[in-house]
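Ticket #403: bound-state structure for S-adenosylmethionine.
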Amino acid sequence: MTLDACTSPPLDISNLLEPTQTELARQGFVSALRKHVMVNLSLDMHKDYVTNVKPTCVATHGPESVTPRDVKNAMEKRLLYRVWSSLRYNAQEMVWASVQGVVERALPKMNELAKDAADTNPASGSLRLNPNLEIPKYVSALDVHLMPGCYHTEYTDDDVAQGAVQFAGGDVFRGGFRHRKGNPGGVAESIANYLKLKHPDFKPKRILDMGCNTGKNLFPYLDVYPEAEAHGVDVGAPLLRFGHAMASHENRAVHFSQQNAEGLDFKDDSFDIVTSSFFLHELPIKSIKAIFAEAYRVLRPGGLMVHMELPPNSEVDPYYGFYLDWDTGPNNNEPFYAQFRNQDVLGLCEDVGFDAEQCIKLLIPNYGSFGLENFKDFVNEQRVAPKHGNGASWFIFGAWVQT
Ligand SMILES: C[S@@+](CC[C@H](N)C(=O)[O-])C[C@H]1O[C@@H](n2cnc3c(N)ncnc32)[C@H](O)[C@@H]1O
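RESOLUTION: The complex was predicted; output attached.
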């Protein structure tokens, strides 16, 4: 395929994914199943806890001393929890299975289209891959999120398969939650708009998303800060190829590079925002510290490190702590999840040199569903963020670098 780079943007790579009616029906079923598990059954399970489990937990451990682990030990004996957990696990596996055939059929054409985009760079972005990059063990040794092949596996030359599986599977995963379907950038949209309203004089020139996956989270930053240069790093080459093709189609100049965020090749003091989302909880603490040290190094004075993550145990009640920790270990192949949620996240920032006075930690509403006026009220401290859960709000933390 030869693209006329001067006149038309490349085709939308995601449009090459053409599910049959049967596949669409299956995907719809999986989205609905996930919603049933994550909303209806979750509510029933919480009721079961409050009515039948909490009183004993409180009597045994004391009202202020119940831990997420105590809740887990008690809930694991409940039939409803076991049904919920089994259904959730199976729904998670079905997410990827429901898109695999679609991706396999479209793969040769998608690979070709992504290669053309990489060769011609029609949106003036870039794609730098490093075939010699050592994939960290916490990615290579297991299928995170139960996704076969994880983030990095390559099956053919110029392979985009894992990027396509992430993209299409992501829509099935979020599909039951209508305000999030098709909007994987909801986190970044919320953070970027928060920064713009809260810090109108802050005008970032270079933005880095670590663990960027297919890079969709950089688009909302470019919407809010159109003058900025956007960079995304990830260890998974197929994700970056797919992401670069999508960005090219949307005429977004995003610079993708295959790097381990623990050791970046960017210069000191070269970014104004270093961000990440749904990233840190998949890493061992040693790696998080290395990544924060890199963020501190590459940020300019006056720059901001800001991460979206699951709220730590210190911010939530023991039941919600237990509920969030479900993803740990074999349930969703995220072995560091619970350990991360037990950290003092601002302490981790201070450990690498950020000033305690410059640290931030807060819950912000999801911009797309909260509404602009409500969002402004939130920024002006006239309104609080909705309770965390199912994408209604995001826990963010990080730190400014002193000027
Ligand atoms: C759960 S995904 C998060 C994706 C995206 N940030 C989002 O919000 O949807 C974690 C991403 O981090 C990447 N990753 C894991 N370890 C990494 C590392 N050390 N350096 C760079 N990327 C890494 C994975 O390949 C994966 O794409």
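RESOLUTION NOTES: Residues 79-120 form the longest helix (42 residues).
TICKET STATUS: resolved
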